[in-house]
Amino acid sequence: MEKLRLDKFISSQLNVSRNEAHLAIKKGTVTVNGEVIRDRSLIINPNADKITHNGQAITYKKYIYILMNKPSGVLSASNDKNRHTVVDLVPPNLKRQGLFPVGRLDKDTTGLLIITDDGEFAHRVISPKSNIPKCYLAELDGDINDEIIARFSEGIVLADGTKCKPAELCRVSKNVARITITEGKYHQIKRMFGVFDLGVNSLHRESVGHLKLPKELFFGQCVEILSKDVELLC
Fold first, then answer.
1. One of 106, 117, 143, 197 is an active-site residue; which one?
2. Which residues contact 45 (CB under 8 A, 6 or more apart)?
3. Distance (Å, rounded) from C-alpha 13 to C-alpha 59?
């Protein structure tokens, strides 16, 4: 049975500081099972006890999972003093403390990015051992030939000698390809095409595992991932 201090519960679920949680409890705006509680150290069972704030019930979520359509020019990071990050784009109704992106998309890469506060989940998604496919659409500055497709399927050896796992490369047009990989080395797709002296003009991630980027989700927008989809992912 999971147990939490009341102030920690309020802070995490309402995305407020611990001091703000203390103040709310002190003012009597928090109830537990119908009783006004002013003891911030009260131990509760978040899955069984009924907690309200200002008369509104609080539905407990231990972790949150967010799917974002990442725009170009935004850092895949939790915070940065000088530049906008993906966490800065999370809307207030989904934001909470401790959010971070699962893996990284380059600053100029767009598309599906998962943001969460669940470290164990993130590790499973990122780990090459999980073999979770990640699909990208790439526009190149040159043509894609059959040799490149075959070499991708064998596993590209990068310029520094790093061996990549076999990847699926499908030609969409003469200079547009759909690539599916199961790992995430630094600048991997750009470096893979670099072996053939091909530059990547644009890169867009379409899916991670069974999660696909919704067509109606515009750049910079977010949607919460349902728990059933999270469980199926890894």
1. 106
2. 1, 2, 3
3. 8
Closest CA to 52 of 87, 24, 94, 86: 24
| Best CA proximity match to 46, nearest among 30, 60, 31, 32 | 60
Q: And the tokens for 101?
A: 């992106």
Q: Rounded CA gap, 53 and 23, in Å? A: 12
Handedness of CA 129, 133, 137, 143 (dihedral sign): positive
Contact 222, 115 (CB under 8 A): yes
- Work out the number of other CB atoms within 10 angstroms of the CB of residue 194: 15
- pLDDT at 231 exceeding the cut of 90: no
- The answer to whether 197 is a known catalytic residue is no
10 Å CB burial of residue 75 (0-12, 13-18, 19+) is buried
What is the bridge-based pairing of β-strands 65-70 and 56-57? unpaired
CA dist., res. 222 & res. 225, Å (int): 9
Q: What is the mean pLDDT of the chain?
A: 94
The residue among 88, 94, 90 whose CA lies nearest residue 75 is: 88
What's the pLDDT tens digit per position in 189-206? 999 999 999 999 999 999
Q: What is the pTM of this model?
A: 0.90
